[in-house]
Amino acid sequence: MAVRNRLAELHRDITGWRRELHQHPELGFDTYRTADFVKDNLQAMGCDEVVTGIGRTGVVGVIHGKVKTSGRVIGLRADMDALPIHEATGAEYASRTAGKMHACGHDGHTAMLLGAARYLAETRNFNGTLAVIFQPAEEGGAGGKEMLDDNLMDRFGIQEVYGMHNMPGLAVGEFAIRSGSFFAAADSVTITVNGKGGHGAMPHKAADTVLAASSIVSALQSVVSRNIDPLQAAVVSICAFRTDTEAHNVIPQRVKLLGTIRSIEEDVRQLLFERVCQISSMTADSFNTVADVRIDSGYPVMVNGEAETQYAAQAARRVTGVVNDCAEMVMGAEDFAFMLNARPGAYILTGNGETAPLHHPNYDFSDEVIPYGCSWWVEIAEARLPVT
To answer: Largest alpha-carbon pair distance within the chain?
Structure first.
């Protein structure tokens, strides 16, 4: 194992940062306090440059190596935002803001990259430049794309970029990665069913939107099972059912369904779009209602570069001997995909142990992960910018 001694010494400090961030979760692009916390720490570490406001509230720290003759610049990225979930962990450092919590471990990601930045700013045992990237709005806000739109890559001359996420169910100290497609594309579907409202005691005088929408939800279960090759990955999930009224005896004029569409291959993605629209419209029509279907394209498939995946796996092996470099594809989405579309790079998972799943009110980032995650950041930085 190659957990750096200095990082082991810093474990308590980094844990303190993580728990401070955990107590003050912020959503989307409203990561003002978090960004200030990151900025202040990067400046205190002696980063050569600290730039704020990239992608609205993103922060980038620049650290030069002992020498810069390689002319190379590597980007290391962590996400900062939380989720609109009420925390149920009961931890002494639990969220102080009702309805918001770090239920995905971005507090841990930010703290680990800060820890690695402190180490790298102290040692500077590399040839070139590091850009440590702290991104807002990963949870549905496409903060990565916003940072790219603010010229992140060209402004800092970034040539490769790497990211990391914790994974519950994977043992602490273990890593997992795969080359090629790793995380799914994520698209949103909104289906608005319009009919004729009426009294619940006289349904024959109405065009029942609740019945129509319920039938649409059931019918959409056939999209994947009867249209997609079983050997290909796809998901269609309706996750919200909203009516215009909560009365017990009113058939509403309108019902809105909200869902997500996940895919890996582009032809599968387009077929999912087509069938969701067709089935929704035809099912609604059979109940004398009308379905308006809107599909909003979201995050693209996240694709790891082949060579960069090997670099990331090799760095993980130097930290711990347990690395799965043929991990299964993940149907969750990740807006690091935008950065990997802009530059070569790779994204790796690090074990969080047997904790509650991501996006769960009982989830908590395991502080035991910190030395492993920080050491991986250091390993990838020094390996890709070697001092020869």
So the answer is: 83
Neighbours of 326 (CB within 10 A): 9
- Confidence bin at 388 (pLDDT 50/70/90): confident
> Which 3 state secondary structure label does DSSP give 245?
coil
Positive or negative: CA dihedral 301, 78, 133, 161: negative
- Residue bearing tokens 């001997």: 321
- Amino acid (one-letter) located at 57: T
Q: How many H-runs (helices) and E-runs (strands) does the chain carry?
A: 12, 16
SS3 category, 318: helix
Please return the burial class of 255, using the count of CB atoms within 10 Å of its CB with bins 0-12, 13-18 and 19+. buried
User: Of all helices (H) and strands (E), which one includes residue 255?
Assistant: strand 254-263
Please, are residues 384 and 160 in contact by the beta-carbon 8 Å criterion? yes
Number of residues in the chain: 388
The two tokens of residue 45 are 């570490």
pTM over 0.85: yes
What is the C-alpha to C-alpha distance for residues 314 and 337, in angstroms, rounded to an integer? 21
pLDDT, tens digit (0-9, with 9 covering 90-100), for 292-345? 999 999 999 999 999 999 999 999 999 998 999 999 999 999 999 999 999 999
Identify the band that residue 1 occupies on the pLDDT scale cut at 50, 70 and 90. low
